[in-house]
Design brief:
Radius of gyration: 26 Å
Shape: globular
Largest sheet: none
Helix content: over 70%
Distance between the termini: 59 Å
Amino acid sequence: MTLVSERPRVLSAPVRARANRVSRWQIYVPLGLYLLFTLVPFYWMLVFAFRPAGSMSMVPWPITFEHFDTVWNGMGFAVFFQNSLLVGLASLIATTVVALAGGYALARYTFRGKGAFMVGMLCTQFIPGALMIIPLFEIFRTLALTNSLWSLVIAETVFQLPLSLILISGFIRNIPYELEQAAWVDGCSRLRAFLAIVLPLLRPALVAVGSFAFIHSWNNFLFALMFINDQEKFTVPVGLAYNLGENSVDLGALAAGGVVAALPVVIVFAFIQRYLVQGLSAGAVKG
C-alpha cells in the first residue's frame, strides 16, 4: 500500500486578496460602537452646559451661556484655569528640558550602572502616585512648599520624567551618530552640533513628551487636592470637585466647568496628533 501525498493547494492572487480582505462591517461596527460609547457622555455634558436651567430637552435649544458665566465669574473658575495653565506650562518646560539632557546622555554615553538605571526608571512606572503622597508631603513641608503651585510642578515633573527619558533616548538612538561626528569635523562643539543637528530632528519626540506632561498635570487631581489648601490656588480638577454642593448639585454649572476643563486638552491633541504618533513610534523602536 502506497501513500500518495496531496500537493499543497496554491491560491491565486485574486483568491488570496479576497481571503485577506476584511468586510467593511467588521471594521465600522466595532468602531461605531466604541465611538458611541465615547461620545455619548460628552454629548450629555454639552446638553447640560448649553441648555437653560430647568429644561428637560435632549437638544440644547435655545442655547444659553448662563452656566459658563456662573462658573467663570461666580465660582472663580478663571483663577482655577489660570493656576492649571501655569502648572501645566511649567511642568511641560521642566520635563522637556530635563528629559532632553538626560535622554541625550543615555543615548550617546556609556557609563557604569546605565542598565540598572534604566531598569529603575521602568520600575517607577509601576508605583501609583497615591503611595508617594505622604513622603512628598513631608518633603514639601520641610522645604516650605506646601500650599504652593511649585509643589505641583515638582511632583508632576518627577513623575513624568521616567517615561520622557525613555522616549527621548530612544528617539536620539535613531538619529545617526555620524551626523554629529561630521559636524565635529567641521569645527562644531558637541553642544553646537546638538543644537544644529539633533535638536531640529527631535521635534516629534519633544511634542510627545511635552504634551503628555501638560495633559497629565492639567488633569491631575490627587496632588492638587493634597498639597494645596488655599482656594485661590486651586487647579481646575479641584475646583470642579469643590463646587459640588453638599445637598444639591448645579448640573449645568458643573457641565460647563467640564467643558472648560476639557477644551484645552482637545485643542492640544487636535494640533499635535501627527507629531504625537510619530514621536511615540520612533521613540519606542529602540530602547
